[in-house]
Target: Peripheral myelin protein 22
Amino acid sequence: MLLLLLSIIVLHVAVLVLLFVSTIVSQWIVGNGHATDLWQNCSTSSSGNVHHCFSSSPNDLLSSTGFSVVHLIPSWSDSPEASIRQNISEIVQEWLQSVQATMILSIIFSILSLFLFFCQLFTLTKGGRFYITGIFQILAGLCVMSAAAIYTVRHPEWHLNSDYSYGFAYILAWVAFPLALLSGVIYVILRKRE
Model:
């Protein structure tokens, strides 16, 4: 039983590490001297050194180099194109903020799940199941899946250039999804023994 508990904790901590790395590291999209994550767009040299980073907010997307689709539209304030430019900016802000929020929620749910697991480990009666822990871990998995799916579908609006590829942080987010669901299901199935 001790080995089972240890392996469940290791799996849970691995999921947490994957969630933290995928949320923080600037490698969701890479290519043409740029690296992009949920928070900023960075230009890099051929040796990998970061030169300039811009926030991923829509205001900075209008002035950043490389990936923004809004560069195609002139910035005259009295033209109909200015209205289109503002609408694109708002659309990018909405989906990017939803990705940011769901990734943060997945981390919060996973941390809360680990905390609840330790609490239930000492307070749950013999034969009880870790339902609450499992539900929060499954919610963490669903949040990271939602974030990665939204990013997959909506990022072409943000990145006009097609010479890019998904970075390792994006892939880690997709890897964290089944692992979080697996650990959540294990928690739901797991019974406490003495």
About this structure: Residues 80-123 form the longest helix (44 residues). DSSP finds five helices and five strands in the chain. Residues 59-77 have pLDDT under 50 and may be disordered.
